[in-house]
Amino acid sequence: MNKKTNVARLSILSNSSLIIMKLFVGTFTGSVSIVSEAIHSTMDLAAAIIAYFSVRISNKPADVDHPYGHGKVENISGVIEALLIFAASVWIIIEAVKKILHPEAVESISIGFIVMFISAAINYFVSQKLYKVAKEEDSIALEADALHLKADVYTSLGVGMGLFLIWITKLHFLDPIVAIIVAIFILKESFELLKNAFNPLLDVKLSDTEINTIETTISKFKSDYCEFHNLRTRKSGNIKYIDLHMVFPENMSLKDAHDICDDIENGLENSLKNTEVLIHLESCTHSCPTCEHKNNLKNE
Question: Are residues 191 and 233 in the same domain?
Answer without folding.
Answer: no
